[in-house]
Amino acid sequence: MNPPIVLITGGSRGIGAATALLLAGRGFAVAINYARQADTANALVQRIEAEGGRAIAVQADVGDEAQVLAMYAQVDAKLGRISALVNNAGIVDVKARVDEMSVQRLERMMRINVVGAFVCAREAVKRMSTRHGGSGGVIVNLSSAAARLGSPDQYIDYAASKGAIDTLTMGLAKEVAEEGIRVNGVRPGLIDTEIHASGGMPERAFQLAHTVPMKRTGTAEEVANAIVWLLSPEASYVTGATLDVSGGR
Question: What is the CATH number of the domain that holds 175?
Fold first, then answer.
């Protein structure tokens, strides 16, 4: 029996990398998407292969439709038709108020975090849906607790992009439920990953840990465990749900 195939966007580090390792250990063939960090992605592939798994690294900026189509073509050719998508790729920008945000910043945020997620989901549905000759599958979209909290004085644009992901999850789940596809989301809270540094605040998660009812940051592995469960047969009657992994925040 062929192993299930998963594509993880933004899979070379943080939550994506933790998810790749867990799924490889559960017998998935893993396609690890990255935008720029080829060395990191290839090192993760080598680690999975050293542990007896199967993985490939695939470069694409999810904010560019042509690159997304090329990425899927590579996965089709090298692994086969995916049965799972982890829509994880996303960006933050530097801390700013709305009255300081440029249109260029807003367009980049929405192009990568929202349009990119839609296009990746679109291509997954084309491969998974029984309407298109597929045999079903699962999509997990990465949202954020910011979608509920708004992130004032930091990055409302990021929070708004993740609010769009929550709506994508809810709507797409209903749209493809009869076609063998489950669609769910995960909303991480303050997680100790590199994304904070990319927004210019490497210590942000630890500085705000006191605002979490559990009084600590989360780990990438804790979020990955939730993603893996939603992808698993144990979650077979779960669709249209978004699970908070936020320590109660």
Answer: 3.40.50.720
